[in-house]
Structure formats: structure tokens, C-alpha cells
UniProtKB/TrEMBL annotation:
Taxonomic lineage: Bacteria, Pseudomonadati, Bacteroidota, Cytophagia, Cytophagales
Species of origin: Pontibacter locisalis
Entry keyword annotation includes Repeat: no
Protein's UniProt keywords contain Acyltransferase: no
Source taxon at top rank: Bacteria
Name of the featured protein: NRAMP family divalent metal transporter
Length: 396
């Protein structure tokens, strides 16, 4: 039975994970894959939801049972592994946060006509304000919930306006004409890859929701997070499907904006600005909070000044975007590394789930182990393949 007093934290952790996943890349991926696969993309979403839940439940449960953050668990499994994982998470978090800040700037540009750089500074300043208040984590929870509900409402409106072929979508979700494995892996990596896997689990730990008695609440929050992200993706898929099924052509330079504009006119375009801003700013917050949570146990000063470390993370990401822009090669490498972070971190959690030094006499569900192992194997293979394919671009 869930404790009523914890509902706010549980929902906050779920929305933090979900809104961290729903960033500029999430919006673009979903739109582009819908254009490529049509109604059969529903099958990709279904597969990714199942794999996402398997990954999240494994990670969140082990964090709760061990009452430790992921980096500390990893160091118990293999000394030094926690430092290596933290380095990957923080570097990936920085790289993707540059894109998130840029997405927030684009959202401001659409809404108010200001330059993306000026918009990025304003949006980053709003994110920083959250961590200047006394109850920063509670404010972060509420902000993530508000932005999440707002995105869902706007996605539903645009999906209804675009009038997608629902029967075809339902049939091809179960009986697809085409199965795109790469699309499945891209969605899994984008929803639970890198720092995103740990955003909610670390938030629950910070709120004191841990130990064996908390597992029902942890399960509920993890599944809720995936459900929220999936609802947003499904309605964006339906909105895009409604547009492309009518033969309309999306603008290659900004596919998700094109969906909103073609479905709902100029008002739809402004709605895209709101969604992009909401998605990007919540991802900025989630990335900064989770990345810092991976280093704060290494030194007491970082934990003591956690909020200032988060603010510094946001400031540096914003400064890089404003002065340099989005460094393409850095983002290419970060994307490839993101595919490798999940199998390393999830694999570590699965080993930890059977390590008595970490979990005591806790018995991890075998079904979760099977699900998690499947995700590790598939993501490791495709992540390695992607990294090999993209490394030459770094030296051009």
C-alpha cells in the first residue's frame, strides 16, 4: 500500500525521469521515425516501453535495496567502476545539456522571436532560480509535474487536431509491416539511457524512500515514469501520423515543429514552442541534478554545496552553447557513448542485485534479471556498432 505522504515525492521522481527523457532529441526522433515507418512505428514504441520498464525497475529496485547511489554500488561491485561510470554520466550529461539548452533557446525563439542564444540564457536562468530556493528539490518535483502535464495536454490537442488513422495505428502496433531494430534501440537509449536511468532512483533516495519496505512505492514510481514518457511519445506519434498519412511533407530542418504547424496552423506552431521549451528546460534540470548526484558522494563539499554545483553545471552548459553553439563532434561522440552507458550501468546493477555486500539477503526477481540482461546485450552490441561507425567523424 502506498503511503499517502509520499505521493508527492513518488510522482515527482516519476515526472523527473519522464521529463528528463522528453527533450529536444526525443521530439525529433519520434517525429522522424513516424515519417519513416508510418503506423508501424507503434510497434517500436510498444517494444521500447517493455524494455524501458525492465531497465528502470532493475535499477530503481537495486538503488532502493542497497540504500546507495549507483556510483557507490558500482564501486562495491568493482573498485573504481563507480568513478568510471560517474565520468561517463557527467561527460554525457554535459554534452546533452548543451543540446537541451539549445532546445530551450529554440522554444523561446518560436514563442517570442528572440535569438536562440538569448532564449537559452533566459531559460537557463529560470532553471537556476529553482536551485536558489530553500526547498529546491520539492520545487523541482512540482515544476517537472507541471511541465509534464502541460506537454501531455498540448500533445493530446494536436493529436486530435491531426485526426490520425487510429484503427491502422492499433493494428500495425501489433502486426507491423516493418520492424526497425535500430529505431527500438534508439528509443530505449533515449528514454532510459545515460543519466536518465538514475534520475528518479536517485531522487527517491534523496527523499529517504529506500529499503525493502519501499519496493512497492519504488515499483509504482518507476512504472509511472515510463508511462508518462510513453504517453507523451504516443500522442506525438499519433499527431505526426495524422499529418504524414494525409501526404503532407514535414520540414526536414525542424520535423516536430512542422507536425504542430501542419496539424493546428500558427497556433500549433506556438504550441510547439511551449512543448519544446517545456521539454528542454526540464531536461536541463534533470540532467544537471542527476549528473551532480553522481559525484556528490565522492567529496563532502560537493554534497554540502549540491545546489551550487547544479547551478554551475547549468551555467557551463549554457556558456558553451552561447559561445560555441552545439559542437557537432562532441554530440556525435556523446550519442554513441550514451548507447554504451546503459549496458555498463544496467549490467553493473544486475551484478549488484546478486552481491550480498550490496543487497544482503534480498532475492531479485528472475524475470527482471532476464529483461535487464536482454537490454544489456542488445544495447551493448548496437552501442558498440554505433560508436565504431561514428568515431571517424571525430577526426574529419
Amino acid at each position: 500500500m502506498l503511503k499517502h505522504k509520499n505521493w508527492g515525492v513518488l510522482l515527482g521522481a516519476a515526472f523527473l525521469m519522464a521529463t528528463s527523457a522528453v527533450g529536444p532529441g526525443f521530439l525529433t526522433q519520434t517525429t522522424v521515425f513516424t515519417q519513416t515507418l508510418g503506423a508501424s512505428f507503434g510497434f517500436v514504441i510498444l517494444c521500447s516501453i517493455i524494455l524501458d520498464i525492465g531497465a528502470q525497475l532493475n535499477v530503481w529496485r537495486v538503488i532502493a535495496i542497497s540504500e546507495s547511489r549507483a556510483q557507490d554500488i558500482a564501486n562495491k561491485v568493482l573498485p573504481g567502476l563507480g568513478f568510471f561510470i560517474s565520468l561517463l554520466i557527467v561527460l554525457g550529461g554535459f554534452a546533452f545539456n548543451i543540446g537541451n539548452v539549445g532546445g530551450a533557446g529554440l522554444g523561446m525563439n518560436v514563442l517570442f522571436g528572440i535569438t536562440p542564444e538569448t532564449g537559452a540564457v533566459i531559460a537557463a536562468s529560470a532553471a537556476i532560480l529553482i536551485f536558489l530556493v530553500r526547498e529546491a528539490k520539492k520545487v523541482m518535483d512540482r515544476f517537472a509535474q507541471l511541465m509534464g502535464f502541460l506537454m501531455i495536454a498540448l500533445m493530446v490537442y494536436v493529436a486530435i487536431t491531426s485526426a490520425p488513422p487510429l484503427a491502422e495505428a492499433a493494428i500495425k502496433t501489433l502486426l507491423p509491416e516493418e520492424i526497425d531494430i535500430t529505431a527500438i534501440i534508439t528509443l530505449v537509449g533515449g528514454t532510459v539511457g545515460g543519466y536518465i536511468t538514475f534520475a528518479g532512483g536517485h531522487r527517491l533516495l534523496d527523499a529517504g524512500i529506500k529499503g525493502r519496505d519501499s519496493l512497492p512505492q519504488v515499483n509504482s514510481s518507476a512504472v509511472s515514469g515510463i508511462t508518462i514518457a510513453s504517453v507523451i511519445r504516443i500522442f506525438l506519434f499519433l499527431a505526426a501520423l495524422g499529418v504524414v498519412s494525409k501526404g503532407m511533407v514535414l520540414d526536414e530542418s525542424n520535423p516536430p515543429a512542422s507536425v504542430f504547424q501542419l496539424a493546428a496552423g500558427d497556433i500549433g506552431y506556438k504550441m510547439f514552442g511551449v512543448v519544446m521549451l517545456s521539454a528542454a528546460i526540464t531536461s536541463v534540470i534533470g540532467s544537471a541534478y542527476t549528473s551532480v548526484s553522481f559525484i556528490k558522494s565522492f567529496h563532502s563539499s560537493i554534497e554540502k554545496y549540491e545546489n551550487w554545483a547544479i547551478i554551475l553545471f547549468i551555467v557551463i552548459s549554457t556558456a558553451i552553447f552561447v559561445t560555441i553553439g552545439r559542437p557537432v563532434h562532441l554530440l556525435i561522440l556523446a550519442g554513441a557513448l550514451n548507447g554504451l552507458i546503459l549496458p555498463i550501468t544496467l549490467g553493473t546493477m544486475l551484478v549488484a542485485a546478486y552481491n550480498r555486500k550490496v543487497v544482503g539477503d534480498y532475492k531479485h526477481p528472475i524475470l527482471l534479471t532476464i529483461f535487464g540482461s536482454l537490454v544489456v546485450l542488445v544495447m551493448a552490441w548496437l552501442g558498440g556498432y554505433t560508436l565504431v561507425q561514428q568515431l571517424p567523424a571525430l577526426f574529419e
